Amino acid sequence: MKIAVLTGASSGLGQEFFKNLETLEDIDQIWIIARRADKLEQMARDAKIQTRAIPLDLSQKNCLDRFSDILEQEKPDIRILINNAGFGKLGYIYDMDYSEQAEMIAVNNTALTVLCVICLKYMHEKSFIINVASIAAFVPNPRMSVYCSTKAYVLSFTKCIRQELKPRKINAFAVCPGPMATEFLDVAGISGGKSKTFERLPYCNASKVAKKSLEYARKGRAVYTPKLFYKFYRVLCRILPHGFVMKFSKT
Length: 251
Known about the structure:
By secondary structure, the protein is α/β, with parallel strands linked by helices. It has a single domain (2-249), classed as NAD(P)-binding Rossmann-like Domain (Rossmann fold). It contains ten helices and seven strands. A seven-stranded parallel beta sheet has the order 3-2-1-4-5-6-7, sandwiched between helices. It is globular.
């Protein structure tokens, strides 16, 4: 049985990835992972394809161990791994709860890394990994210092493992979208006019981001940045000093 594993499945971009996975002819079952068991179970009931809900809090080591045990017992044929789980928080580092910052690193980086490591044991030629990064990976963003740092890690990590996996003909792909109209903004504390930068930026379409990410990852591409505006921003961040760009990237 050919499996797709999707984290952060219960809302936003995760739900859009799920809708696209349902249409793939070469996938027999989707495993969806998130903290909200009720939402996952409803998704599984309504799904057009066989779907397994696995409620896990990926910030907790025991949950990662539990998923590793499931893989060891069932030894699935994983064709697609989508590491979409993640969150951010807006605010100055000295004003924020350290536990939230630690949890952000645990979900955005530790869980993503662990899932890649344990799932790769069950992935073979022509399978692929999608890791959700962000335009925040290109240059540090004051007031989202931990979040943008975690996304820089995701981008760098994905590029590295992509090279390591080439002999196995497995692709690792990073998607770096700009803001999207999802729950992320509420969780991050950005909604309600709390960031003038986010109010001015063009928003990406989550459905298109999911569809194009799957398409490009399958084709073997390395990185996808939606919208010409953000492609240009990505180039600027490569050629201009980060100290200069940061004057305009403050969230």
